[in-house]
TrEMBL record:
<dbReference type="Pfam" id="PF00574">
    <property type="entry name" value="CLP_protease"/>
</dbReference>
<dbReference type="InterPro" id="IPR029045">
    <property type="entry name" value="ClpP/crotonase-like_dom_sf"/>
</dbReference>
<protein>
    <submittedName>
        <fullName>Endopeptidase Clp</fullName>
        <ecNumber>3.4.21.92</ecNumber>
    </submittedName>
</protein>
<dbReference type="InterPro" id="IPR023562">
    <property type="entry name" value="ClpP/TepA"/>
</dbReference>
<keyword id="KW-0378">Hydrolase</keyword>
<dbReference type="GO" id="GO:0004252">
    <property type="term" value="F:serine-type endopeptidase activity"/>
</dbReference>
Length: 95
């Protein structure tokens, strides 16, 4: 939809425990991150460096930006309301 927003953010973890457990969790997060970045770069056509840059912080896209980036295939627009369509009275609900 035209007013939709898409947010991309990198994965994060909250590992606790012994140093080995934290290291294992960190390695797994890095493995998943690298896989997701690679897939995102391939599917969107963006260079890997751009994906890394965009996911270093939360990146938000409006519908057109998401389309341009390659995150979505198209923007779905509702059909136009005809000028002679009956109007609802003020104060009625949207449904």
């Amino acid at each position: 939809m035209p007013l939709s927003r898409v947010a991309l953010e990198s994965s994060a973890g909250a590992a606790r425990g012994q140093a080995d457990d934290i290291q294992n969790e960190a390695n797994e997060l890095l493995r998943i991150r690298d896989y997701l970045f690679k897939e995102l770069a391939e599917k969107t056509g963006q260079p890997m460096e751009q994906v890394h840059k965009d996911l270093s912080r939360i990146k938000r896209f409006n519908a057109q930006e998401a389309l341009d980036y390659g995150l979505i295939d198209r923007i779905v627009r509702p059909p136009r309301i005809k000028a002679d369509a009956p109007q609802k009275e003020a104060g009625t609900c949207l449904g």
